[in-house]
Amino acid sequence: MSKIPGAFNARFAQSTPRIDIHHHYFPSDLKKEQSNVHVGWKTPPENLPWSPKISLQAMDAMKIDFAILSFPAISIGCISEESRATARSRNELAAGFCRDHPDRFSFFATLPFLEDVEGQKLSLN
Fold this sequence. Notes:
The protein is an alpha/beta fold. It has helices spanning 6-11, 32-39, 52-61, 81-100, 117-123, and strands at 19-24, 66-70, 105-107.
């Protein structure tokens, strides 16, 4: 997770900030609309395809000051370089959102396939 920036702290020195600590982001290559159908979830259509702009609008509407982005665990698949590369690309994407909006976003790192202990160790470096 990236550090909460000083500007964030200064912005809320006089009030109690509202922080969303479970804020999913969905990269466009995920095709969230299709994957929802397979598991029976319903994401509001106006939230897809996901973008930081959509999240910022929702956060503003709900008076949420800061969100910690997270990508759901990669719980299916196998131990592979592909899984490791997917986790790495998710982390690079989230880091970009945080660079673009440092006063609004931070993120929890995505780890490779859950049973890939060695890959998870490498991700921490």
